[in-house]
Structure formats: C-alpha cells, structure tokens
From TrEMBL, chain A:
Domain of life: Eukaryota
Protein name in the entry: Pre-rRNA-processing protein Ipi1 N-terminal domain-containing protein
Location in or out of the cell: Nucleus, Nucleolus; Nucleus, Nucleoplasm
Alphabetical UniProt keywords: Nucleus
Main location: nucleus
UniProt cross-references to SUPFAM superfamilies, sorted A to Z: ARM repeat
Annotated ranges, domain TEX10-like TPR repeats: 557-927
Gene Ontology annotations for the cellular component aspect, listed alphabetically: MLL1 complex; nucleolus
Assigned protein family: Belongs to the IPI1/TEX10 family.
Keyword Secreted: no
Species: Eleginops maclovinus
Record InterPro entries: ARM-like (IPR011989), ARM-type_fold (IPR016024), Ipi1_N (IPR024679), TPR_TEX10 (IPR057949)
From TrEMBL, chain B:
Cellular localization per UniProt: Dynein axonemal particle; Nucleus, Nucleolus; Nucleus, Nucleoplasm
Main location: other
Start and stop residues of the WD repeats: 117-152, 189-211, 265-306
Lineage: Eukaryota, Metazoa, Chordata, Craniata, Vertebrata
PROSITE patterns on file: WD_REPEATS_1 (PS00678), WD_REPEATS_2 (PS50082), WD_REPEATS_REGION (PS50294)
Leader sequence residues: none
Entry-linked PANTHER family: WD REPEAT-CONTAINING PROTEIN 18, WD-REPEAT PROTEIN 18
Pfam families in the cross-refs: WD40, WDR18_C
Protein name: WD repeat-containing protein 18
The keyword Nucleus is assigned to this record: yes
GO process annotations (BP): DNA-templated DNA replication; rRNA processing
Length: 943, 428
C-alpha cells in the first residue's frame, strides 16, 4: 500500500523552485537552438501574370476589389493606383472599360470626400482618353450613378455630383443630352423641393405650381451661391441639349454660301446609279420620297432601350408640350431666384438711374436669363418655337415685366477695395463656387434678348407692347450708338434683338431709330473682320427681307448704307478680299433689284471701281472679278470714260481672257445693237461709244502707249527694213495670246452688229484716222487688225488705198517676223506663229488687192544679202498655200518678175537650197495653174 | 393630204407680210401663215387648241387668232404695258402674261383678271406652266426665278398677297429662258441665264440639282421629253447638248465638248433665241437672230433643214397640230370672252365668284388600286358564286343532279372494271 503510495508520490513529485536559482529545464522543452534560413522559390516571385501593375505591384483586379473595401483610405489609394495604372497602360482602358466605368461610377456616392475627389479625377482621365461613341453603351450606368449622387441625402455628395456633371458635360455633352428628362428633375430637386400634392397650398396657388425653392442651412456656402452653381450646370446642360437638336436653318446672320438668302447647300445628295445593277436589283432606290416636298423625317429608331423617364417632366423634350410643361415648372423657380437675388442686397439707385447689383446677384441673374433663353431654343421645331413664344407671352409676360423690367438698366455696384479682398479670401476658402464675373453689359443684353423674343407681331386685337419695349429700345440704341466696345457674341445678340424688334414693331420711326444706331456702330473704324462681316450680313439680310415690309424698304438708313457700299468697296481695294466679296454680293443683290440709290452711287464710282490700274476689278481674286464684271450689266449708263477704262481692263491682261470676253459680251448686251431686249429697258451704252470701245479693244493699246512706243528705242523693237516696212514691237507671248482671244470676241461682236459693210467702214475709218501714221506697230495689234479685216470684209466693199497700204505693210512685216521667229525656239512660239500666219493668209485671200500690194512691196533690189533668203522663204510659203493659188496666179507677172530678180541678185554661182525650193514651188504652182486654166479653157472650148 | 401630227410655228420680227407661219415638221413646207402685226419674243402660245395668241412687238396688246382663220384677228387684248412674255396653261383655263415687273393672270372662261403678281424687281423675261397646269414658273431680269402654285395665286385673299412657292435665286445675271419638264408638280425646271450657266431645279422642293457652266451666255434652253439631254442655245450661235444621264454626277460642272455625250450643234451665226424638241425626241428646232430657223437631227447632230426668215426669229416651236387648224369651216370649242384690264375689286359683297374648275381628269377622285382590285375580285367571285351555288331553290335540284351523275359515273366505272377483268381472265 505504501509502495503504491510512494509510487504515486514519485509520479507526482513536487519540484521545488527556489528563488535565485535557475529554473531547471523541463523534460518536454523544445530545443530552440536551431537556425532557420529562408528559401526563395523563384516561381512564386514572378509578377502577376494577369497584367501590368502599379508601383505597389497591384494589378487591375486587385484595385477593383479594393474599391469595395470598407476603409476609405484603401479606396482612395486604389483610385490613385487606378489612375497611375491607366495612364501608364492606356491599352487596359480599352479592355476593361465596362468594369472600370461601373466600378468608378459606384464610388460617386462614397461617404468620404477624398474618395469622391479621386473618383472624379479618374473619371476625368477616362473621359479625356475615350471618345464619346465608345462610352455610349455605358451612359445609362453613368447617368444612373450621377443622378443617384445628385439626389443623395448628404449635401457634400450633391456638391461633388456637380463636379462629376462638369466632367461629363465637358466631354460627353451628347450622351447626357440624349435623355434629359431624369437629369432635369434632379436639377429641380437640387434647388427646390416638391410639395406634397393635394395639400391646401395647391388650391391656393393659382398657377398650380407645386415646387418651391428650398433653403438648406447646413450648406457650407450661401444658398444663393449654391443656386448659382446649380443654375450654371443647368445652363450648360440645356445648351448641350439645344446643340443636340437637328439644325434646321442657319442663324440669322451667319453668312450663307449661296448667292443670297438661299440655303447654301442643297439637302439632296446626288446618287450614282447603274442601270445594270438596278435591273438585277442589287441596289434598291427610292426615287421619290414625298418627291422632296417634305424633308425626310429623322428616324427616331434607336437600338438601345430608352431609360424610363421620370413622371415629373413628361417624357422627353422632343415634343413642344414636354418643353412647355418643363418650362412651367422651371420658370416660377427662376423667377423666385431672381427676386431673391434682387432683394438680397439693398437696392439703391445711383444718380445715373442704373440699378446697382452685387457681383454675386448679377451672375445669378445672368444665369437665370440665359436659362430662359435656352428654354426658348429647346423647342424641337421652328413652328413649336413660335408656339412656345406665344405661350411665354401669355403666361409670364406680366411676371417678367414686373420683375425684370422694374429696375431695367442694371449696373454693378462699385464695391470698396477691402471688401473685395475679403471676398477673394472667402472664395479661396470655399472653392466650390466658381468665380464668375459677369459684366453688367452682358446681363443687360441678355435681358433685352429674352424680353424682345417675347414681343409678338402686332396684330389686331392685341395691346401694343410699346410700353415695356421702349426702355429696351433705348438701351439697345444707346449701347450701339455710344461706341462701347462689344464682343462678337454681344454684338450678335444685340443685332438679334434689333432684328426682332424691326420685324415685329413695323413702324418706320422705330426701324430708322434702331438702324441708325447700328449704322453708327458700323461706321467705327477699327472693327475686326468678323464683326464687320457680321454687320454687313445683318444689313444685307435685312435688305433681302424688305419684300412685304415697307417700313424696311423705305428706311433711309438702309438706303444710305447701300449707297455707301460702292465707296467702301473702292476704298477697301485689295486689302481684304473676303470682305470685298461680301460687299460685292450685297451690291449685286441690290443692283439686281434696281435700287435707285445704289445704282446712282455705283454709277458715280464706276470709273474708280473699274480703273485698269488700281480699280477693284483688277485687284481682287478671280471670282470677285467675275462678279464685278457681272455687276456691269446693271449699270444704268456707261459713260465714255468708263468704257475707256473697261477697254484698258480687257487689253492689259490683268483679267483673264475668258473674263475679258464675257465683259465685252456684257457691254454688247447693254448696247442697243445686241438685239436681245425684253421689255422697255433702255440701252446703257450709246452706239458711238460702244463702237469706239470695240475698236480700242481691238487695237489693244491705248493711244498714249502707242505714242510712247514710237519714241522708245528698245531692242524688242525691230528696226524697219525693206523687207519689213513697219518696225514691229514684239509683245510677250502671254499678252499676244490674250490679245488674240480678245480680238476673236471683238470680231464676233462686230459681226453681229448688223450690216457688215458699214461695220467695216467704221473700222476702216478708225484705222485710217489713228493707226496709219504709226511707224512702230505691236505685232499683236497688226495680227489682230488683219484678222478683223478678213472677218469683216465683204467682197462687195473695197478698202480705201491708204488703209490697204498700211495693211499690206503690216502683212509683209508680220511675215518677215514669222520667218525670224521660226529660226528661234520653234516650240514656244508655236501658237503665235500659227495665229500670225492664219491672220496673214486669211487677209490675203479675202482681199485680192492686198496680195497685189504685198507683192509690189517686195522690192528685191533694195534688199540686203541676208534678207534675200527670207524673202524667198516668204514667197515659197505663200506658194505652198493652196487657197491663195488663184490670186497668186492673177498676179503671175508680178510674181515672175520678183523671182527673176531674186535669181539674179542671189549670185548664181552657188545655188542655195532656199532658191531651189522656191523655184520648185513656183514651177509647180504655175504648172498647176496653167493646167487648171487649160482645163477651164478646154471646158470653155467644149461649149 | 393627211394632216400632219406635229407642226412648226415660228415668227420673226422683220416680216411685213405675216406674223407667224406654220410649217410641216417633216417636209418643211409652209402650210399656213397668220397675218397681222409681228410677235415679240417668248409670246407665241396656243390656247386650248382653238386660239393662237401672241404679244405685239413693242406694243401693249395681245393678238388673238382663231386657229382656222389665218387672216383675221379675233380680238386684241389690251394690257397696261408692253408685254414681255406670254403663256397659256396647257389645260386652256388660264392665261399669264408678263408686263414689265408684274405677272398678269386671266381666267380664260370669264376673261377676268384674277391677279397681278408683282414680286419681280425687274422685267419678267419668261413664263412657263407645268404640263398639268398646277404651277407656273417666272424668270426675270432681277436674277430670280419664282415658282408659283396656281391654286395659291388665284385665291383672292386680300390680306395676304400670294407668295411664290419657291424662290430660285442662284443666278447672278438676268434669266433669259426657262423650260419646265413633264410630270406636273414633280417636274424639273431648267433656267438659262446671262451668267453663262444653266441650272436644273426640282420644282417640288426648289432644290438646285445641277448647274452647268458654259463659255458663253445662254439664251435659250430645253429638255427632250424623256430628259436625257439638255439643249442650250448660246449667244455665239452654238447649241450645246448636255447629257443628263452621264456617269459623273456632280452639282456643278462646266461644259466641255465631246465629254460624256456633251456635244455642240454648229450652224447658227448669232444668238439662238428659241429651242424646241419634237414629241419623239429625235428632232430639235432652233430659231436664231441670224434670221433662220434650223431643224436638227439629234442623233446625228446635223442640220436637216434651214427655214429662212425675214428678221430675227422671235418664236419657233414644235407643237402638236391642233385638230381644226386645217379645217377652215370649223369653230373653236369654247368662245373667247373679252379680257378685262383691271382687277375687279369686291364690290357688292358676293359679286366676285371665282370659278375654279379642276382639269377634266382631276374632277373625279381616282380610285386607288386596292379599291379597283377589290371590285374586280368581287365581280369574279360573283360569277362563280352564281354558277356554282346559285340561290336556295336551285341548290336541291343541283344536289340531286350531282348525285345522279355520281351514280352514273360509278356505274360506268363498274362496267369498265368488269369488262377489263373479263378480258384479262379470258383464256387466250
């Protein structure tokens, strides 16, 4: 028993621990003496294969999952990482766009501010690098999250939603504007709250409005500033919606490309069809769809399902009713905002009578007005817009008059400096509010435009709008007339109001008043091109509107403006072709309508405009030149000096030959000799002047030029010699061809004058009077004269002796020139040679006397040694030309004489080639001629 | 001699003896000539097949002949000014004349002046109706061509003066001629102008379809009936043929000879003032200021006939020969009233009744094809219904008849069977 007990004691022996002694090791103690070493497994250290990572080695998937983390810091860093990753690897963006967008959009409503800021940054980055059409599929997701954020109960999230909206509006305005309904409701909810329907208030409110402006005291900014931010976004959003609308017609005074007033490009597109393909029905073609009477309806078919629209604002803004109902909700709110802004700072009139406003209030008001303006434009079609205007007029004219017009000319209060500093500091602290400075001018102009758009055409049974339009008119007039610097946009808006007022007011005094103010502005010196052309197109459009508006047609200012156009055109010169083009278009429009003042002014300035040296017609580019030439048609009278100028224009070569030809034809049409006349339009050109115009154009050189040519001693003038009795001034190639083309046209005009013989008489007289005494003659003129003579001469008329002598001299000189031209550069002068030869030959064949005189002029005895071969060549060329054989044979004796002399003088020792050729040609011609004669003789014998 | 189908009617400004002459299109022989005065350009027109009208050159009246009485004027219509152009609607109900800037429109049946349209700023040069008389187009020296809907013009609404349906304002110099194609309101209109272009428009929408730029001013223009070609008479005497069905389609083109079917007819020496194409599109008639009228074969581009005149040709047109042109004893179907010179103001309230009668074939509402098909179907069904089913009494008789027939047929069949079986089982 004891042993057993002892044994038990052995088992459970108590170990005594003593203080100060080390504790004995227990039996089951682990020996920790070993050392461990890490083993690196290289496979595991490989990077994440799924894709690139950030500098923290986090891949896209990691970051995505971190976005769902509870910790705000993790989420923040994940967003930062996302941005880094995406900017380093843009390809990721394309692969994972759907996930990215949905995940990032999900944190729009995150509770932590930093996270939201980071999410906005990532969104901006995505927006910058992905085009709109690729984001289009995700726009429902985006807008759902956006509206979630906008309607969030937490105020800071709402505020940040504005920034997200900013990003989206900047980059994808079209996507947001595609379904505006939900967002518009959200906007309303941001600044107001809906009252529970069925309450007693609704019954009280006469207009049944159930939205009221809300004030939230918890915001960090004042409610006015908050409203400003919201309204700013709303304005931008509406602008995006408006810009999405199909453009129906261009703005009132954007310059159109068409001639005037007509729509620039047609809506029809030419279609290229192949009959074979059509018959095998490879392509189906709808030839007549309403036969073009209606524009093709834009298809509303969409592949993507439409998001269910909110019940508040009707369906979409596609119908006029929807717009109207939205406006009915929004306008009262805007009015409230306006009232609040105008009363928030103490009203005070200064001495000038302008109402003073603080900058904040001013910008709020500006936003209110610009939203009103956009609301008007929201109407889908033009007729809807008119209906909407009428509706605005009916519903809100009273309110607008009461609130907007009460203190109409607004001005900014001149705040003392120290307050401005405080403002600056405050705005730095609360960076939420964008610092916008709105000029009072802009505010006033916008107000004008909103109010004027309301004014209706005065008809029967409507009270006049004059009372409230008067201050507006005064303002517009003063602004334009006082020479204030206006930006292009402001001027555009002002002109729009003027336009509307002129069209609706329909009284002469108002029209003249306003137009005079515009004219004052127009006459300022230093306007930019854009502004200038805007004003120009304003006036010309207004002028084109005159039909049916007698008050516009009779406006003195408009007449004065039109009358000043030719002067402006001549003063402008070549400095600004684009502006000149617009001026010419306006002038042409008025001239075609036979505007008296303009025609008078054009008549007085015509000589200056068509001056051959510095007139507009030679300075401007070709297209404007053509218009200037066409303008000639409308001139009531063409004076002698103008015709002289025109003739110079034609001949000096600064307008193309084709244009010169059409100029000549236009003068022809305006003469009494043209034969084309409809109605009782009297001829603008007297016959005498017309003929002298033609003659001077035919000669191609002015009398001064010819006179100076006589004296000049230049190497381009060949001295006279026995072979070329006149010394020829060789014109440059271009001038020669130009003159040749002009001569053809002049000849055609002369031919159609009527009696050919009289016509030739006139030309003959002209030659006799002015040209015979010349010693130096330009070759183009000589050729032209010969050409004209051969075309105009009837066989019945015999030219007088002095003219014939002159012409024969010309002819011989030209042929000598021809020989000398042949020796040098045959290729370049080809056209010239052909022209000269043609002119000579046709003249020689049509006037037999001329040939005789030319032959008589060939006095072999006077020729020098070198000239003999030339004469020989001339003769052989003539002999080879069959059409004049008969006439040559008629002068056979003379010819024989010349040839005998030639053989004698050319020292018979070495018979040269040219002489052999000549003799051969001569013998062939004579043989042929004699055989022909014999034939005819034998024929005669037979009878 | 059989009466010709188509005739040439031409007039010139120089002839003393007669005003306008009728030639046979095929033989070129002169058939008739109408006496009295001389016609001004673009004013010769045929009114409802019974009257020939032309404006006197430089005077303010219109000469009217009954088509069969060549030597006597039926009446003179006096106008307030010199008539610049004249046309009658193809259905013979309206007459339009350009007098200076204004267009005068008369109703032929009563002679009333329906309206005076003064939308042009300068003289009206040409007027043309569409072939269904629903619209007309006017061209003027103010570079404009206006398309008017006849129905809107003749509504006498004094508050709103009639507005043109379209304003074609792309020319930059006066319009010299215009031509209206076929197909009523869906026609295409060609306008020629001194600005050296010819423009083709769609009448219904006022769209510019084609603009062709030439080297010279164009004085006259026409289509062939199928609108394969556009013919343009130039101020230099050439006639340009522009192919409208070429492959290269562009809105603006410039004329180049021998380029996809564009060619030139050469022969005249002065302005070509009038052009006309025959009904079958093979012959082209051109009148010119060189005092000739030429007839061209379009296929070969040759001048096949040249008819000399005494002065510049003012009118030359190929028209279908009216039935009673060559019957001296006939009378026009409708008498022509006196034409009034002034717009009748509404005196006495309802005194101004305007009788607007649509053309014959538009009076009855045309049935649609569906209705026609329905009716046809009904007729066919009625025939079978009657023959097969008949009415109630006949049915029983019919049924018994049919049963009897079935019986006989069965009997015949049985006989046939027995006969064949006997034939087959008979031992050979």
């Amino acid at each position: 028993m004891k042993s057993k007990k002892k044994k038990r004691q052995d088992d459970f022996q108590k170990v005594k621990l003593k203080v100060g002694k080390t504790k004995p090791k227990s039996d089951n103690a682990t020996n920790t003496n070993f050392r461990s070493k890490g083993i690196n497994l290289t496979e595991q250290l490989k990077r994440d294969t799924s894709g690139p990572t950030t500098h923290r080695q986090l891949g896209l998937n990691d970051l995505m999952s971190q976005l769902h983390h509870y910790s705000a810091n993790i989420k923040h860093s994940a967003l930062l990482g996302l941005k880094e990753l995406l900017s380093a690897n843009p390809s990721l963006l394309e692969q994972h766009l759907s996930r990215l967008v949905s995940e990032v959009a999900a944190v729009f409503t995150d509770k932590d501010g930093n996270v939201r800021v980071a999410a906005t940054r990532v969104l901006r980055f995505i927006a910058q690098s992905v085009p709109a059409e690729r984001v289009a599929p995700f726009s429902p997701v985006l807008s759902a999250h956006l509206s979630c954020a906008m309607t969030h109960i937490e105020i800071s999230i709402q505020e940040d939603a504005m920034k997200i909206l900013d990003v989206l509006l900047e980059h994808y305005p079209a996507l947001l504007a595609a379904r505006p309904a939900v967002l518009l409701t959200n906007f309303l909810e941001l600044i107001s709250h809906r009252q529970s329907s069925g309450g007693p208030k609704k019954a009280q409110d006469p207009k049944g409005r159930n939205w009221t402006l809300s004030v939230n005291p918890n915001r960090t900014v004042t409610s006015q500033q908050w409203r400003l931010t919201v309204l700013l976004r709303l304005g931008r959003f509406l602008l995006a919606v408006v810009e999405e609308r199909p453009v129906e017609e261009s703005d009132i005074f954007i310059p159109t490309d068409g001639v005037f007033g007509s729509s620039g490009e047609g809506r029809l597109i030419p279609l290229n069809l192949n009959w074979e393909e059509l018959t095998y029905s490879k392509v189906g073609v709808k030839v007549y769809e309403h036969s073009g009477t209606k524009p093709t309806p834009r298809s509303t078919f969409r592949l993507r399902p439409e998001v269910d629209t909110g019940p508040a604002v009707g369906e979409d803004l596609d119908s006029a009713e929807a717009v109207q109902s939205f406006a009915a909700t929004l306008v009262p709110l805007l009015l409230e905002v306006w009232v609040e802004a105008s009363t928030s700072d103490c009203p005070g009139n200064n001495t000038e009578g302008a109402h003073l406003l603080s900058p904040d209030a001013m910008s709020v008001m500006f936003q209110v007005l610009s939203i009103l303006q956009l609301l008007r434009k929201l109407a889908p079609q033009q007729e809807h817009q008119d209906a909407l205007d009428a509706w605005f007029y009916k519903e809100y004219l009273g309110d607008f008059k009461q609130h907007f017009m009460k203190n109409f000319p607004y001005d900014s209060r001149d705040t003392p400096r120290h307050r401005k500093k405080v403002d600056l500091k405050r705005s730095k602290q609360t960076a939420v509010v964008p610092v916008l400075t709105v000029e009072p001018l802009a505010l006033n102009i916008t107000l004008c435009q909103v109010m004027v758009s309301l004014s209706q055409r005065q008809g029967l049974g409507r009270e006049t709008d004059g009372d409230w339009l008067t201050p507006l008119r005064t303002f517009v007039r003063d602004t334009l007339g006082s020479g204030v610097k206006l930006s292009y946009r402001q001027l555009h808006m002002l002109l729009g109001t003027v336009w509307k007022m002129v069209l609706t007011q329909r009284t002469k005094t108002v029209t003249d008043d306003l137009l005079a103010a515009v004219y004052v502005y127009y006459k300022q010196r230093n306007l930019t091109l854009q502004t200038r052309s805007l004003l120009l197109s304003f006036y010309s459009k207004l002028y084109l509107q005159e039909q049916g508006h007698t008050h516009i047609a009779r406006s003195k200012v408009l007449c004065r403006w039109l009358a000043s156009l030719p002067v402006q055109l001549s003063q402008l010169g070549h400095r600004n072709p684009a502006l000149s083009e617009r001026l010419i278009l306006s002038i042409q429009a008025a001239a075609s309508r036979r505007h008296k003042d303009l025609l008078k002014s054009l008549h007085t300035n015509a000589c200056k405009l068509y001056d051959p040296q510095e007139g507009v017609v030679v300075l401007l580019p070709a297209e404007s030149q053509q218009r200037m030439v066409q303008l000639l048609y409308f001139l009531p009278k063409m004076s002698q000096s103008l015709l002289a100028n025109l003739s110079c224009c034609c001949t000096t070569g600064r307008i193309s030959a084709g244009l010169a030809a059409s100029l000549i034809r236009i003068v022809h049409f305006r003469s009494s000799l043209s034969g084309w006349s409809v109605g009782s339009q009297e001829a603008a050109v007297e016959d005498v002047n017309y003929i002298s115009f033609l003659f001077s154009t035919l000669t191609g050189f002015s009398s001064e030029k010819l006179a100076s040519l006589q004296e000049v001693d230049d190497e381009s003038i060949l001295p006279p010699s026995p072979l070329s009795p006149l010394s020829l001034y060789s014109t440059p190639m271009e001038q020669f061809t130009h003159h040749w083309d002009v001569v053809e046209e002049v000849c055609h005009c002369l031919e159609t004058l009527g009696s050919k013989s009289q016509c030739f008489d006139i030309v003959q007289n002209g030659i006799c009077k002015y040209l015979i005494k010349l010693g130096v003659v330009p070759d183009s003129m000589a050729a032209g004269l010969l050409r004209a003579v051969s075309r105009l001469l009837d066989l019945s008329v015999l030219p007088i002796e002095p003219v014939l002598r002159f012409l024969s001299q010309c002819c011989l000189s030209l042929m000598a020139l021809l020989i000398s031209l042949e020796q040098e550069l045959p290729a370049e002068t080809n056209h010239k040679r052909e022209a000269i030869w043609g002119a000579c030959v046709s003249a020689l064949s049509s006037v037999p006397r001329l040939l005789r005189m030319v032959l008589q002029l060939m006095r072999v005895g006077d020729l020098s040694e070198e000239e003999l071969p030339q004469l020989g060549q001339i003769l052989s060329m003539l002999l080879q030309h069959t059409p004049i054989h008969n006439q040559l044979l008629a002068n056979a004796a003379l010819l024989q004489d010349i040839i005998q002399q030639l053989t004698r003088y050319s020292r018979g020792a070495t018979r040269e080639q040219w002489l052999t050729d000549l003799l051969y040609c001569y013998s062939v011609t004579v043989a042929h001629g004699s055989s022909a004669r014999r034939g005819s003789l034998s024929l005669r014998d037979m009878y | 001699m059989a009466a010709p189908l188509e005739v040439i009617v031409s007039s010139d400004s120089g002839s003393q003896m007669w005003n306008s002459t009728v030639f046979d299109l095929l033989s070129g022989s002169s058939l008739l000539s109408y006496r009295g005065g001389s016609s001004s350009a673009r004013s010769l027109s045929l009114l409802s097949g019974g009257y020939l009208l032309s404006a006197q050159l430089g005077k303010n009246f219109i000469n009217v002949w009954e088509i069969q009485r060549k030597d006597q004027l039926q009446q003179k219509i006096v106008c307030p000014g010199v008539i610049t152009c004249l046309t009658a609607s193809p259905d013979g109900l309206f007459l339009a004349a350009g007098v200076a800037e204004a267009i005068y429109l008369w109703e032929v049946s009563t002679g009333k002046l329906l309206s005076v349209l003064s939308r042009h700023y300068q003289d009206v040069t040409c007027l043309k109706f569409t072939d269904d008389s629903s619209h007309f187009v006017s061209g003027g020296k103010d570079n404009l061509a206006l398309v008017w809907g006849l129905s809107s013009v003749i509504q006498l609404d004094l508050n709103a003066p009639p507005e043109p349906r379209h304003i074609l304002s792309r020319h930059s110099l006066p319009i010299t001629d215009l031509h209206c194609g076929l197909m009523g309101a869906q026609a295409r209109v060609a306008t020629a102008s001194l600005d050296q272009t010819v423009k083709v428009w769609e009448l219904s929408s006022g769209e510019l379809l084609l603009s062709v730029l030439f080297d010279v001013e164009i004085m006259s223009v026409t289509f062939d009936p199928s609108e394969y070609f556009l013919f343009c008479g130039g101020s230099d005497g050439n006639i340009f043929q522009v192919s409208l069905c070429s492959q290269s389609l562009s809105r603006e083109k410039s004329f180049q000879s021998d380029n996809d079917g564009d060619t030139t007819f050469k022969g005249h020496r002065n302005l070509v003032t009038c052009l006309s194409v025959s009904m079958d599109g093979t012959l082209l008639l051109s009148g010119s200021h060189d005092e000739t009228v030429r007839l061209w074969d379009i296929q070969s581009k040759q001048s096949i006939r040249c008819l000399a005149h005494k002065g510049p040709v003012t009118n030359a047109v190929i028209m279908a020969a009216p039935a009673n042109m060559f019957l001296p004893d006939s009378r026009p179907a409708v008498p022509l009233p006196r034409f009034s010179r002034h717009l009748q103001a509404s005196e006495g309230g309802g005194a101004t009744e305007v009788c607007v009668r649509p053309a014959l074939y538009t009076q009855e509402v045309e049935k649609t094809y569906m209705q026609k098909a329905d009716r046809l179907n009904l007729l066919m069904n009625a025939v079978t219904d009657k023959s097969v089913f008949g009415d109630g009494e006949n049915t029983k008789v019919r049924v018994s008849e049919l049963e009897e027939e079935v019986q006989t047929l069965k009997k015949v069949n049985k006989d046939l069977y027995e006969f064949t079986s006997q034939l087959l089982t008979k031992p050979t």
